[in-house]
Design a protein that fits this description.
The structure holds two protein chains of two kinds.
Chain A (H helix, E strand, L loop, with lengths): L3 E3 L5 H9 L3 E3 L7 H7 L32 H5 L12 H35 L8 H11 L16 H4 L24 H27 L14 E3 L2 H8 L5 H16 L7 H6 L1 E3 L13 E2 L5 E9 L2 E8 L6 E3 L2 E2 H4 L10 H13 L6 E8 L35 H15 L5 H9 L30
Chain B lengths: L1 H6 L1 H13 L75 H6 L4 E4 L11 E5 L2 E4 L1 H20 L4 E4 L6 H10 L3 E2 L12 H5 L8 E4 L11 H8 L4 E5 L10 E4 L5 H27 L1
Parallel strand pairs in B: 4-5, 4-6, 6-7, 7-8
Antiparallel strand pairs in B: 1-3, 2-3
Helix pairs in contact in B: 4-8, 5-8
The chains are: A alpha+beta, B alpha/beta.
């Protein structure tokens, strides 16, 4: 077979298989004039060693060029110059053109990156020789401060191999004949996975039939547990297979894998199954509840900060108490007073709720300070000119700490702070109960911004037919 | 033809008895007696021949003229050009009529779904089920296998196509084992006609398509048949009684739904390809 094989460094595993067959192997294209090389090589079979060593060089010196000064392989081998091998197809020529262009481009990018890294190191006053990627990230963050929310949109400097998508190596040989049997499906790796899946299903069915004949039952101790893991995302799977997948294909894959997993003997192919599963991170591993502190009197206490909208609250919960709750020095009911019109006091109930859930209503004392940290709110209703709240009865100053009622965001912040502090006083089960009750979650809802052309964030101006 | 008769008298006698059992009114004499599907396809856009009539079969299915085939040829490459030999690789020995019968290749679908262009390949129908003429099938299958072997001998790319879900795995495995290619999945329309865009560069297309089922999952003709014809890629296709054989270069009328039948086809085609490749290796060494 007079095949001439073109290989790239990514195909090192193919190198020896092909070289054994006695075909000529050309590695490390780069600036080597491939077509020239093809012209000069004889059509008859040659072992790699008899060809000019500058053309067939080991991968370690892949960067070196064999320029026009290299000795002519024909002169060395003593052969006559012949036409390029007839076997090289148009497909291969086109691919080689593309590949050389890409390699040229990548080399330029890598060179620019290395030079840029050295400049950056000099700018930061650090050693250019030992400037790692972490140092680069830090330097970029320092030199290009940005308020962009999306992390992916922020400026970054990475090695070109990370930035530019990985390209598949040559999919076919010099005659244009593809390597992969499913090449023409356009997604050979994906459909090969499905093929292997079915192959394994059939294997398991045959095994089960054999076991049934012998009266053997499946081993229940080895039963597959998929808890704590989930199937790879469509994007992650696509990245793994270096192919972009569409939704129906991905659904087919998931359905087929689920069927394999349902098989009683699926544990035999555990490795195959878990190759396509990702482990879920435990959600609470970063949340460690702090230990109780003790004051000079030996009383246990805990401090915590809570937030809601623009309010920030700081609560100190003392154990061995009697259920007294003070906010900003005032008793709870007086701070969150409500004059007329509303039944019940929602804000007081909000603050008491964590104590009720934990069952410590009469055994702890709470001292909270809360501050509303933001611009004056526009209250409900239109801001009418000349409107003033008229009250005939003016209570004592201590009964009306605010010109208007305290915003309920302060109550929410106090509740959050109290809940976080209470965690140290209760056991794991109660902490879980509190988490499920939503007491430990910071409520991220904020006031929606005003938009021009509207009255507020959503309400439109009066619509006039004409 | 002589070898066939010697090989399986039993199968032939079964056939004859089946035909004899048919009521006379159902026996195909004029080749137009069978009930055909009501929706006749228009040929304006296809420029294809009409169903065979009393004048005979189509030009594509006539045997090769004598001047191209040397019936006295010897299987010795130094003496005969493989292309001039009627059966250089001896594919006629790969199967017998009995094998076809056992694999239920002769069973077609019901009369209601019969394609008018398939009528000439049938012996008739029995209780509403179409029955293929295995003599004809055997002849065409030999031609198809011969062609496949020659393509493999010359290093061509052969691609198996089958959209029948229960046979996809078998066909893909067959293709893998004989070192060829397969496409038993969803067929994007531009695979052949817009290959440069889809594959991201100039690609060499298959030199032969072997269709083990010319219909896709919704019982419409597989896009590969038309596209291969557009790109001048020859096709070998197993055509059932509900298929349209017109665009297939080497139609093989027979059952494409039974697993036994598909298994037989896979075996035959893979063996044919292997023979061609073995001969290629031998001649390369020599």
């Amino acid at each position: 077979m007079n095949f001439i094989w073109m290989l790239f460094p990514t195909q090192i595993d193919k190198f020896w298989d092909i070289a054994k067959k006695g075909a000529v192997v050309i590695m490390s294209l780069g600036r080597v004039r491939v077509l020239e090389a093809l012209w000069r090589l004889p059509a008859t079979r040659l072992s790699a060693s008899t060809v000019c060593p500058t053309v067939c060089r080991p991968l370690s010196s892949a960067g070196a060029r064999s320029g026009p000064t290299s000795p002519d392989p024909q002169e060395q081998a003593g052969q006559v110059q012949q036409r390029p091998a007839k076997n090289t197809s148009k497909a291969m020529m086109a691919y080689l053109e593309r590949a050389t262009k890409h390699e040229e481009f990548m080399r330029k990018q890598v060179h620019e990156f290395e030079i840029g890294k050295r400049h950056l190191a000099n700018m930061m006053g650090e050693d250019p020789e030992h400037f790692t990627q972490e140092d680069v990230d830090r330097a970029i963050e320092y030199l290009f401060p940005t308020g962009i929310f999306d992390k992916k949109a922020r400026p970054k400097m990475r090695h070109p191999t990370e930035v530019f998508p990985q390209q598949k190596a040559a999919q076919f040989d010099a005659t244009g004949r593809p390597f992969h049997t499913l090449f023409y499906t356009l997604k050979p790796n994906f459909y090969m996975t499905l093929y292997e899946l079915v192959e394994k299903m059939n294997q398991l069915d045959r095994l089960q039939a054999k076991n049934d004949a012998l009266g053997k039952l499946p081993d229940t101790t080895q039963k597959l547990s998929l808890l704590g893991s989930e199937w790879l995302d469509i994007e992650e799977l696509g990245k793994m297979l270096v192919e972009t997948l569409k939704e129906p294909q991905y659904q087919e894959f998931v359905r087929a894998m689920n069927r394999l997993v349902e098989h009683p003997l699926a544990y035999h192919h555990k490795d195959f199954i878990f190759k396509y599963r990702k482990m879920l991170r435990v959600s609470n591993e970063t949340d460690t509840v702090p230990e109780l502190l003790f004051d000079s009197a030996g009383r246990p206490y805990m401090e915590a900060t809570g937030y809601r909208k623009r309010a920030v609250a700081r609560a100190v919960v003392h154990g061995r108490g009697s259920g007294r709750v003070t906010v900003n020095g005032l008793p709870l009911v007086h701070y969150f007073h409500r004059d007329g019109g509303r039944s019940g006091n929602q804000d007081v109930a909000q603050v008491m709720y964590p104590l009720q859930v934990a069952g410590v209503l009469d055994s702890v004392d709470v001292e909270a300070t809360v501050q509303y940290d933001g611009p004056t709110q526009r209250y409900h209703g239109k801001r009418r000119r000349g409107h003033r709240k008229r009250t005939s009865f003016v209570p004592e100053p201590w009964k009306r700490p605010h010109p208007v009622q305290a915003p309920s965001s302060q109550a929410g912040a106090v509740r959050h702070a109290v809940s976080l502090a209470l965690r140290s006083f209760v056991d794991k089960e109660m902490q879980e109960t509190m988490r499920l009750a939503g007491l430990l979650t910071r409520d991220v809802r904020e006031r929606e911004r005003y938009k021009p052309g509207k009255k507020g964030s959503r309400k439109g101006r009066t619509w006039k037919k004409r | 033809m002589d070898e066939l008769k010697n090989d399986n008298q039993h199968a032939m006698s079964l056939y004859r008895s089946a035909v004899r059992l048919l009521p006379a009114c159902l026996r195909v004499t004029s080749r137009r007696a069978l009930v055909t599907s009501s929706a006749r396809t228009k040929d304006h856009d296809l420029h294809l021949p009409t169903p065979a009539g009393p004048l005979g079969t189509w030009a594509t299915l006539k045997p090769r003229p004598e001047k191209y085939v040397d019936t006295e040829a010897d299987i010795d490459p130094s003496v005969t050009d493989p292309l001039r030999h009627p059966d250089y690789f001896g594919v006629r020995q790969l199967f017998t009529m009995s094998d076809l019968f056992d694999a239920r290749v002769h069973l077609g679908h019901r009369e209601g779904s019969l394609n008018p262009y398939m009528a000439e390949f049938l012996l008739g129908s029995r209780l509403g089920h179409c029955v293929f003429d295995l003599e004809r099938t055997a002849q065409l299958l030999r031609d198809a296998l011969n062609f496949t072997t020659h393509i493999a001998y010359r290093g061509g790319i052969i691609m198996f196509v089958c959209r029948s879900p229960q046979h996809v795995h078998m066909v893909e495995r067959t293709a893998m084992e004989c070192g060829e290619f397969s496409h038993c999945r969803h067929w994007p329309p531009g695979v052949f006609t817009d290959s440069t865009a889809l594959f991201g560069g100039v690609t060499r297309l298959p030199d032969l398509l072997v269709l083990l089922n010319t219909l896709d999952t919704v019982l419409e003709q597989h896009g590969a048949v038309k596209h291969a014809a557009k790109m001048l890629i020859p096709t070998v296709g197993v055509v059932d009684s509900n298929c349209d054989p017109r665009l297939v270069t080497y139609p093989v009328p027979g059952n494409d739904d039974s697993t036994t039948a598909v298994r037989l086809y896979c075996k035959l085609f893979s063996e044919a390809i292997r023979r061609g490749k073995a001969e290629r290796e031998k001649s390369a060494v020599v």
